[in-house]
Amino acid sequence: MTMLRHSAKALGVGLVIALPLTVSSVAMAKAATEQQATQNLIKQLTGIKSLTAQFEQSTQSNAPAKAQNKGLTAQHMNQTFTGQMKVERPGKFYWETTSPSKQTIVTSGKTVWIYDPDLQQVIRQKMDEQVSNTPALLLSGNANEIMRSYRVTQPNAKKTYYTLFPRDTEGAFQSLTISFGTNKAPNLMILQDSMGQTTHIKFSQVKVNPSIPAGTFDFKIPEGTDVIDQL
């Protein structure tokens, strides 16, 4: 994606970031039950009222031919996207990609704006279930609603990382792993999608519960910008 175009381009490319445990140690660790994992994740997310962070996003394909058949080129899978994210509950979200190209995704909870300054174009979408299930948007949602939409696992009951599986198997992704750091803020998301792609989003300079100006989530259409309605 950027996140809706790549993340609506996968969330959103060769960077491999390791999870806190190796495969062998996960096998030896005691996993939480699904109920325990769900409760632990709700507790983890409930403390986050607002969040700001820098992000670095990369995607690699386990099935390049399949991805290219879906319209994604090798270039899409060999770039690292960087930018900043701001979220505030309930439902407010700002995602700005600054490199290698610019794109901004903004919502205040009802309408999603996807702005591409290079094309002088903005896409306006309704915040329906499909859009709201975009992985990074989960951070700005309602924890209990998220749990109703996903089956939650916690491979190691003593470690704060979780893998979520959508209950709706027709969704945009097959699994989402989210890891939390010592400051109880997310530091990594790993997305597996139906096109055989793995997307890593690494967060840095994370601030939990900062004050975010209200106008951050109100998109104002720049002069000369074409509006494409997908409401």
Please give a structural write-up.
There is one protein chain. This protein has a single domain, classed as Lipoprotein localisation LolA/LolB/LppX (outer membrane lipoprotein receptor (LolB), chain A), CATH 2.50.20. It has 231 residues and is α+β, with helices and mostly antiparallel strands. The chain has 5 helices and 12 strands.
Major sheet characteristics: 12 strands, mixed
What fraction strand? 35-45%
Helix count, DSSP H or I runs of 4 or more residues: 5
Indicate the CATH class.
Answer: Mainly Beta
Give helix % range: 10-25%
- The low-pLDDT segments are 1-26
| Tally of discrete structural domains | 1
**Could you say what the CATH topology is called?**
outer membrane lipoprotein receptor (LolB), chain A
Average pLDDT, all residues: 80
What best-fitting shape do the alpha-carbon axes yield? globular
The strand order across the widest sheet is 7-8-9-10-11-1-2-3-4-5-6-12
CATH architecture: Clam
What is the CATH superfamily label? Lipoprotein localisation LolA/LolB/LppX
